[in-house]
Amino acid sequence: MKIEKSRFNSEGAPQPVASQKEIFQAEESDISVIKFEGYTVRIVNVYGEPWFVVSDVCQALEISNPTSAVSSLDCDEVMTLTLTEGHSGKRGGARSWNMAAESGFYKLIARSRKASTPGTFAHRFSNWVFRDVIPSIRKTGSYGVPFAFLNDHTRRKELYKKKASKRGKDLQSCKGEKARLAAEEIELWRKYQPDLLEVH
């Protein structure tokens, strides 16, 4: 995974500059995933600071145009993260995400009309972020399931699906493995996000 940026502001946070690029190497362990009422928000730890995937945040805040939302943030509050996926040393396709610094994340919430309207999903999401997520990140450095654990679980779940489909009608032999995987997923969310009301 590469985070593209070019220089740092006075707090040491990445600050983009058009003429120069520096590459930050991040590991899967730098990504956390938080879930709220079925929505997922990815957070990347960059030099000890949380950076939020803007498209995930906008979806949770019911903001229909993430590009417009990003343009309203200061340049030191936004950067592009390029994730190059690959297995066993082979390079896969690259995906780029707009990322918002913690201050940009707060601004997106504060500027969202729906986040200030009681009863909306965006309002519940913003309350949850300010009451649970941000205090946890500040106290412990993380909130949510580490991406590496979630990725490993998803990989094993996909292997199970392939094995079960090959067995066809003899699905009784797969029930134990399916139950173990379901229990493991619940335990992952319970351990890393204990207040999660809905587990998928």
Rg, Cα atoms, Å: 19 Å
Pattern of helices and strands: EEEEEEEHHEEHHEHH
Name the beta content range.
Answer: 15-25%
Number of strands: 10
Q: What is the count of DSSP helices, taking H or I runs of 4+ residues?
A: 6
Structural class: alpha+beta
Organism: Raoultella ornithinolytica
Pfam families: Bro-N
Protein name: Antirepressor protein
InterPro entries: BRO_N_domain (IPR003497)
Summarize the structure.
This is Antirepressor protein. It contains 6 helices and 10 strands; from the N terminus they run E-E-E-E-E-E-E-H-H-E-E-H-H-E-H-H.
Describe the structure.
This protein has 200 residues and is of the alpha+beta class. It folds into two domains: 2-143, no CATH class; 146-200. The chain is built from six helices and ten strands. The protein has helices spanning 54-60, 66-71, 102-111, 121-140, 147-167, 175-192, and strands at residues 2-5, 7-8, 14-15, 22-25, 31-36, 39-46, 49-53, 78-84, 94-101, 145-146. The protein has an eight-stranded antiparallel beta sheet. A two-stranded antiparallel ribbon has the order 2-3. A hairpin with a 2-residue loop joins strand 6 and strand 7 (49-53). Helix 5 runs antiparallel to helix 6 (175-192). The radius of gyration is 19 Å and the shape is elongated. The chain starts with a strand and ends in an 8-residue tail after the last helix. The relative contact order is 0.14. The model is unreliable at 1-8, 16-23 and 86-91 (pLDDT under 50).
